[in-house]
Write a structure and sequence with these properties.
Layout (H helix, E strand, L loop, with lengths): L2 H14 L4 H5 L15 E3 L10 H13 L10 H11 L6 E4 L1 H13 L6 E4 L5 H9 L3 E4 L18 E5 L11 H10 L5 E4 L20 E6 L12 E5 L1 H11 L9 H12 L1 H24 L2 E3 L6 E6 L4 H10 L2 E5 L10 E4 L3 H14 L1
Parallel strand pairs: 1-11, 3-4, 3-5, 5-6, 6-7
Antiparallel strand pairs: 2-8, 7-8, 9-10, 10-12, 11-12
């Protein structure tokens, strides 16, 4: 063993003796790589290839000049009103936070920390078990079926809450609203959280069910379809009683969570519906193009309702493809675990010209 490794182990042991027990037990979430070197195509973190609209940028510039010396509105009322008007809800049905990940963290603590286990898919967003570990919440993974679908009938067992993305990540496969509503009808004693981070790329939102079911929480993100990944802004929709629980956690943690720039950007991103429709339509068209091209190269791609696809080659090893893509300046996401998905690649859908470049590079490799 190298001397440097011995030194690192010694340093870790010294640090860990000062840590709380829960920190020693944590397995943190690993985000997608944010490279500092020159990359031709960055298709590994599901960002939007298009910049925010000019209305958003103008609103940010105005706030920079106008009022950064002042604290932001702690309730983000104008942003909540904008969201309420857009989705035909009440302001009391809306919660906002620093990205949907922060909101999910509040949800796990406020609504899912119960005696019975939380249920979520065995192949899904890997932050869910990380939150459970952080908050010491029991959980049970429910296996996807052989075609990687979430079977919501499998969730009709004793639980302290249910959470799943729609569409699921990293598979991209969406669920129908009728299936989600059936789960809500049959599971009324615990909270059901539908994580809609990718919903705007061809999946139907369950927001229409918020006023009908008092145990439903919907989370969404401004990072994907609204081109604001760098701003960190998310929102949740639920019955007022559940929103009050989230506010109690938020106000015990950070009473000024959403800064002035994010509030201004979020408002205009919601209002500029023309730009939203333009960019999401372009991404859906680029996804359709890529799926067709991958099929011609012997890739098997799962049906996607997201701004990414989950695909594997029929004969080429995924690790070799990832390595060769990296050598040619292309980043995609690869999950070595669980074994069922170790041959799949998750590829972010970029602009159409990006997808043409990717296809050309893949043809060189394959």
């Amino acid at each position: 063993m190298h001397i440097q490794n011995l030194q690192n182990i010694g340093l870790l042991e010294t640090m860990s003796k000062f840590w709380s027990d829960i920190v020693n037990r944590l397995t943190p979430y690993t985000p997608g790589e944010q490279p500092k070197d020159n990359i031709l195509l960055k298709l590994n973190t599901n960002e939007n290839p298009y910049s925010p609209s000019t209305r958003v940028l103008d609103a940010i510039k105005l706030k920079v000049i106008e009022s950064l010396k002042l604290y932001p509105d702690p309730e983000s009322d104008d942003l909540k009103i904008t969201l309420a008007n857009h989705y035909s809800l009440s302001k009391s049905n809306i919660f906002v936070g620093n990205g949907s990940d922060e909101i999910l963290a509040f949800i796990f603590l406020a609504l899912l920390k119960k005696e019975a286990p939380v249920l979520f898919p065995d192949i899904t967003y890997s932050f869910y078990p990380a939150y459970c570990s952080l908050y010491d919440i029991e959980y049970t993974r429910i296996p996807l079926d052989k075609k990687f679908n979430i079977n919501l009938k499998d969730y009709l067992i004793n639980n302290g809450g249910i959470i799943f993305p729609n569409p699921n990540a990293p598979t991209g496969i969406p669920k129908k609203i009728v299936d989600i509503e059936n789960l809500l009808k049959l599971n009324q004693e615990s909270v059901v959280v539908v994580d809609e981070a990718y919903v705007d790329f061809g999946t139907d939102s369950a927001i229409t069910l918020v006023n009908k079911y008092k145990n439903l929480v919907i989370t969404q993100s401004f990072s994907k379809s609204r081109s604001l990944a760098g701003m960190r802004l998310g929102c949740a929709f639920a019955d007022e009683n559940l929103i009050n629980a989230l506010n109690r956690v938020k106000n015990s943690f950070n009473s000024y969570p959403i800064d002035r720039l994010a509030q201004a950007a979020g408002i205009e991103a919601i209002k500029d519906l023309k730009y939203f429709n333009l960019t999401t339509t372009k991404i859906i068209k680029a996804r359709t193009f890529l799926e067709k091209e991958l099929l011609s190269m012997d890739f098997e791609t799962l049906p996607s309702g997201a701004n990414f696809i989950f695909t594997k080659h029929k004969s080429k090893d995924a690790i070799i493809i990832v390595k060769k893509l990296r050598e040619l300046g292309v980043l995609v996401r690869h999950f070595e675990k669980p074994e069922r998905i170790s041959q799949y690649l998750r590829v972010t859908i970029g602009a159409m010209e990006d997808m043409h470049k990717l296809v050309s590079i893949l043809k060189q490799i394959i």
